[in-house]
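One chain given next:
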Amino acid sequence: MIESGRVLDRLCSEKPCTGAIFTTFGHDPAFFENQVLRSILRLTSDPVEQPQRFHSEALRTLQETPVAVIVDAGQRQPGRRLPYDVLEVSDIVFHPKSALHLYEDYARLMVGSGNLTFPGYSQNTELFITYDLRYDSPDDVELLREFDGHVNRIESLVRQTGSQLSLVRGQLQRRISGVVATGNSPTVALLDSTKSPIMDQILELIPESAKINHIGMLAPFYQRDDSSEIDASSVFGALRHRVANNVSLDVGVVWDNAQVQRDSSFTELNDGLNQLWAWSVNEGEDREIEYLIPTTVHETRLDYQDGQGKSRREDLDEALDAIENGELWMLPKPRVYAPRQALNSANDVYENVDIWLHPGSRLVKGRPVHRPLHAKLLTITYRQGRSTRTLVMIGSANMSRRALLQQAAPRLGNVELGVAFIVNGRVNITDILPELVNVPLKLLQLDERPFPEPGTNWSLAIEQVQFDPKSRVLKLQWSELASELFDWQVLYNDRELVRGSVAPTSDITINDFVLQPASAEIVLRVAGTDYSIPILVTDLVALPVFTSGGGLQLKDLLLLLGRRIGREKAVEIGKRPPKVREDGKMAHHFGEGFSPTDVFRAWWAVAQDLADPELSLLGFRLRLEGALGLSDAWKCIVDAAREKAMNTTEAWFYGAELIRELKQIELEESADYEPKMEVLNGFLDSIRSDLQQIAPDDAGRRWVKTIQRFYAGASK
């Protein structure tokens, strides 16, 4: 089913996302974080009105939900604030546009033409195909395995691997590992240029005995017009050896200078025959633009060709009145980007070649809207016996040699991704995009798109920037390009970290680094120009909640873990100046009215959270090892015992009870059961190690021996 709408609306789901992978040519961090991440992670804070709250909520969710974005290094924009992984590909043109979102029972796969930018998801005319794929369906799992294989191949191309991509892939692989393929022919094929040229994969889907009788192509970019020969090296001739004698070709192109209202110029109808005109007509309460080419003026009627290339008639007086009222006017010569020589030569090969313009500006509900074409579409209709079928391909590939005819490789083919499926009957590009306008080639101004040579991307002088939140060490590793650097600075959040006037000779280590909410990237400034580089965090679970000062005391942690205050309130408390400690007084740790029961309540509440089958693996880790988790509360108790601020016997008692509670957790069988148990057992081992160091002296205290006997089995 073809639907028209916003891509963002297809990202929402009623269930929580447990991991996501995006691939894109261009990436706008501000749009991605404020719109895309906010949607898939179901964030409730407003990034503009509540920036601090939004960052805190987003960070917490990212600590439970791994997200990785793979992007072309030359097209990534600056401004990243959240520490999801941004992985760059630089040695090859990286052009796929896809998204995989994992949920508990299914995965959502989106493949299309739009970049992770506002135009790509909200403004341009794009095409996406979306599948909800169940983990218990063999056919769905086969498509997921194909996509995972694609990700595996592009992972070898990234400049830095990060930590999040493997976590998402691990989730997926655990969920589909036991599903056996049925051996049935797939109804959907994933076309991936990292395996072989996409056109070769398309031809494999069309039966050898079939004859192609119609081809439709639509793209904003076509091959360069460097040859007038239509042969196997041309996208217009790649299918030539499989076509029938009467094959036709539709070519859809961008029309940038379409008008939705008349300018100051005026043209008489007789002077504009066989030219393209626009007619603004009433359609209900709104106005729409219709396109026509007047051919003959009779005494009372006007003959014309409509936007679909069909011959029509209209009352002449109505046309003249429309011209007088400014509702019918001749358009400037349409300017489009397409290879003129190749199209002229195609007329010698195909029985019929039709050019279809996509108006970049048009009326939507009576209002002018600029929505340029960025969609990529290929339709191939063929006849086999008495049956007519159409192969439809939607994806990232433009109609060029690098996109369709070459395998992905440096300085050769692009990395592209598409989806192909076969439907009964004939499907034209106009069936999918009905706003296309048929115009003869002779009426068009065909230009080659200019591709300015890019300057040096100095961000590639840094191989990777890695931050370890446990040691608070930031490491910056230079690449070979750094040998050409001069007059450079490395900055973070407008603060200079290091500078040099000649090429750097050694990597950089920054101790006591704090990742601020304002930025998750560093800046390399070269001769006054800034180049951003994403900071990759080795373990998001280990990121602290408080960037400087403050922190929660034990009593506040227990209130949080015991569900007596919310996380937002706890963070607010933690930002206050620390209170003066009163060594040796229990009230210092628990506050007035607190008792050991409050400790047990915290342990019980966390154990209940950990048993939730919908809790992700990272969420499981976060509650045990992360900031404001069990590890923080237990560390406060151990530190208090070591500092003699708490009786060691009592501290040991709390630890033994914690082990007892955690060992009683019954995790449901799931794809994450084994890794969760591995995390849990590792945490239990760390507590047992601490208990050995604070073991109580039971000399002369019979009640201590009784407690030790009670916990003897639980603490092993």
Remarks:
- The first strand starts at residue 19 and ends at 24.
